[in-house]
Amino acid sequence: MDNGMCSAEARSANGFDPEMIHDWLSEEDPERLVFLWRMADRVRREQVGKSVHLRGLVEISNHCIRNCRYCGLRAGIPGRTRYRMRDDEILACVQEAVQRGMGTVVLQAGEDPGLDRERVAGLVRRIKKETKLAVTLSLGERSLEDLRAWRRAGADRYLLRFETSSPELYQQIHPPRTQGAPDRMEILGWLKDLGYEVGSGVMVGIPGQTREDLAGDLALFRKLDLDMIGLGPFIPHPKTPLGAHDAQVATLIDQVPASADMACTALALARLLCPLSNIPATTALATLDGTPGLEQGLRSGANVIMPDLTPIHYRRLYEIYPSRVRPGEGCAEPHEKILSLIRAMGRTPGRGCGDSLAWMARTGMK
Ligand code: 5AD
Ligand code: SF4
């Protein structure tokens, strides 16, 4: 180790020392940051190998009953055209995932009661019957009965970000919860009990997030023993309450910047703390910084990419944050670009479903 960092320091990061995590999140020396990202890349290589698993993302509905103060799909946003894809449209995207050699399809939506239990269960059953794909659901906070029915129908994985480990920050960025409603931690517990591979995560640089908060999030990833971890930079959406956030950021001491570098530092620390988890280089990272963002994520501990297979006319409407679709962007060439990037980095596109080794270690399956 060549830049003043001893191996005890590396071990300590691996063994989780909250103060050191905070120090790393405060680090500004570019050389030391590169050192951290490389260390995470090495742990990624040793623990989960050189495969980059491709998950085909299908954004099946942009309806949402929630009002998260940062999100462009929030119920209260003015003028949003809403859509819900038909089964045949969704299944066409699923076939595209198969044709492109992907091992997993991710069905994602806002929290949409219109996607009822039976409809989603039927869809999952069909995908599992007609393909060999793993099915990941990302449909928000749903009832235990829904989650159980979907697991029985064959769903393999579920993504539900807890968004922040700080109760105070959670309250600042979300409207008050209905009394007695289960919180995300409880739902994450159900998902685990139901045998799903469980994914969670946070945004990096949401207004009001301190380095201490983010260090707490990273500690919680480890405590929850997550199978998948999603971490991306916060990207302000001007039509949301947290969209015009510059003034708040300027006044907050210890505010986490919403930069690609900070997101990669958090990603690297997540890899060191949870070596066996599947960790994507997220769409938000690519949105902020294009292909270099994806590449930087893959060099900082990520081993997953989630190419978007949603038809372009719907994708434009799935505007969690602005600029998710660049002018003229189609479907085919980004996929080729991603494959070339993976190969140019000396990595290989993942084969099979790419189950989380953390989940396999936890459950002794598959
Ligand atoms: N910037 C970045 N990520 C966001 N999300 C929601 N809004 C934003 C934003 N403005 C993330 C949240 C949510 C997921 C669907 O997208 O973490 O869980
Ligand atoms: Fe809805 Fe999810 Fe956006 Fe919240 S973050 S408003 S639950 S889509």
The H-and-E topology, N to C, reads as HHHEHEHEHEHHEHEHHHEHHEH
**What are the bound molecules?**
5'-deoxyadenosine, iron/sulfur cluster
Mean pLDDT: 89
Number of strands: 8
Number of helical stretches of at least 4 residues? 15
Shape: globular
Strand content: 5-15%
Distance between the termini: 37 Å
Determine the structural class based on helices, strands and strand pairing: alpha/beta
How large is the radius of gyration? 19 Å
Number of domains: 1
Q: Can you describe this structure in just a few lines?
A:
With 366 residues, the protein is an alpha/beta fold. It has helices at 7-15, 18-26, 30-48, 87-99, 117-130, 144-153, 167-173, 184-193, 211-224, 246-251, 260-273, 283-299, 312-315, 332-344, 357-363, and strands at 51-61, 104-109, 134-138, 157-159, 197-204, 228-233, 304-305, 348-349. The protein has a single domain (3-363), classed as TIM Barrel (Alpha-Beta Barrel).
What does this entry look like structurally?
The protein has 15 helices and eight strands. The chain is an alpha/beta fold and 366 residues long. It has a single domain, classed as TIM Barrel, CATH 3.20.20.70. Strands 1, 2, 3, 4, 5, 6, 7 and 8 form an eight-stranded parallel beta sheet that branches. The radius of gyration is 19 Å and the shape is globular. It starts with 6 loop residues before the first helix and ends with a helix. The N terminus is likely disordered.
Secondary-structure map:
Blueprint: H1 7-15, H2 18-26, H3 30-48, E1 51-61, H4 87-99, E2 104-109, H5 117-130, E3 134-138, H6 144-153, E4 157-159, H7 167-173, H8 184-193, E5 197-204, H9 211-224, E6 228-233, H10 246-251, H11 260-273, H12 283-299, E7 304-305, H13 312-315, H14 332-344, E8 348-349, H15 357-363
Parallel strand pairs: 1-2, 1-7, 1-8, 2-3, 3-4, 4-5, 5-6
